[in-house]
Amino acid sequence: MRKALDALYNSAAALAALCLVGLLIMVMLSIVGRQLHFHVPGTDAYAGYLMAASGFLALAHTLKRGEHIRVTLLLAQLTSPWKKGLELWSLGFATALSSLFAWYCCRLAWQSRTFHDISTGSDATPLWIPQIPMAVGAVILAIAFIDELVLEITGQRVEKSSDEPLRTE
What we know:
It is a single chain. This protein is an all-alpha fold. It has one domain (about 1-160). It has seven helices and no strands. The radius of gyration is 20 Å and the shape is elongated. The protein starts with a helix and ends with a helix.
């Protein structure tokens, strides 16, 4: 199960990276188009869609690597039982919030598809298409929080700390 979950997180991160490459292509196409006096309609909208997709698809991978912003000032001062309790409460609350967020993201994409909602720009893209990566990223984030909660409950969670403060001068 661990290998499957890690593959899911890594696959979502790889898709996020591909979306960033697509974003670069859209921006470069827009810049080159301005310089050579041609216009490709919808490049700004598609760049925005790809940026949102890359952000959402990378959330779970970022969480699993311990790169999300955490306030550890309070945690460092607590004793073991209090620290464990606060970790469980935090992960439980984050799991509930991310699950609700995933539910509503999926619902939004479904409603956009049902109502045939399209973008207001010149591209007239059906909005459910760019909303799918957002919903998928939110669902994978909820799975990652459930994973973290289960690992914390079973005592298998390894807290990853970033070395970022060590690199500042």
